[in-house]
Amino acid sequence: MQSTPGTAEMALPPLFRRDSAPPGYTTPPFPSLHMPPQDPKWSLYAVSDIWRFTLLWTLIFFGLFHLGAAGIALLMQAGKRRSNWKYLWLVPLVYALIAGIEAVIAGSVVGVIVGASYVAGNFTMSTWIPFVWGWVNVLVLIVSSFTIQGGL
């Protein structure tokens, strides 16, 4: 059975079906969180762009949460002896380094997988999706930091 012009496949909006980026398309600048999110001008088409946006959002969120934890760790030392403060300046640096390493790994893995899924499915990606995946990465990190009682 051959399809003719005007069938359901041809009637799908460009948000869900595409063959390539529209003519004259340029990658939107980071962060590009615009409304409405379905506007093709603010969509991502290449895996490299999807990976980059996801990596950057993951770096931002991991950095904020790790430096927040470092700040709390420093505040807990407020009433302690002055000799303890000699090396405490290293705490934010170590936390920032760990955040960077974790974010590069998590953001790269998630960005490539999500980007490849969108490209393989022939979908366009709103710039909000990498933002959401950055939050998901941080929430997975937070949940995995708790011990699980009664585990296997």
Automatic annotation (TrEMBL):
Protein name: Integral membrane protein
Keywords, in A-Z order: Membrane, Transmembrane, Transmembrane helix
Similarity comment text for this entry: Belongs to the TMEM170 family.
Primary residence: membrane
Family matches, as PANTHER family: SD17342P
GO-annotated cellular components: membrane
Membrane topology: Multi-pass membrane protein
A Pfam match: Tmemb_170
Transmembrane segments: 50-75, 87-116, 128-148
Subcellular location: Membrane
